[in-house]
6,7-dimethyl-8-ribityllumazine synthase
Amino acid sequence: MATENKNLSIYDKSKIPNAKSLRFGIVVSEWNEAITEALYKGAFDALVDCGAQQENIIRWSVPGSFELTFGAKKMLTTEEVDAVIAIGSVIRGETSHFDFVCSATAQGIKDLNVAYDVPVIFCVLTDDTLQQAEDRSGGKHGNKGTEAAIAAIQMAVLGN
Ligand SMILES: Nc1c(NC[C@H](O)[C@H](O)[C@H](O)CO)[nH]c(=O)[nH]c1=O
Ligand SMILES: CC(=O)[C@@H](O)COP(=O)(O)O
């Protein structure tokens, strides 16, 4: 289902485990800051809405999405967290750099999920235009940060 047919911000709170006892790390890329800050707000607000304590949400910033893998690895290996959310916004430019950044970031975060026992949630927008990014970070398609927060809670308690 394409995002166009799924609002990224809708969740049934009654079906989401309470996050009161959980600790979360959120690593935020500074590239396209207006987008990533909107994604962060969506994630933070959803975690708190589902019971997370604000003091149990640790935020770190990294320069760009390519650095999210290292930032998430450092977060999960040095902080006591139950899940990490990696937030980025990659917007296509003139060259193929977009493809390399997106691929490396996706593969890197996937690799962390294989190598470690703490879920790392892929909250990285990969858009052709700024409008697409705006639509998915609190715009007409909702907020992928909200979606990522719900996934983080669900994965943090998986198998418990
Ligand atoms: N163009 C975008 C980047 N590029 C920067 C890289 O992520 C990385 O920081 C640099 O290559 C140094 O290692 N990053 C984004 O997050 N979004 C972009 O649109
Ligand atoms: C995703 C990128 O790295 C990209 O925005 C950089 O732009 P350009 O390809 O024009 O150098």
Strands lie at 24-29, 57-62, 83-91, 120-127, 137-139, 142-143. Helices lie at 33-49, 68-78, 97-115, 130-135, 144-156. The chain has a mean pLDDT of 96.
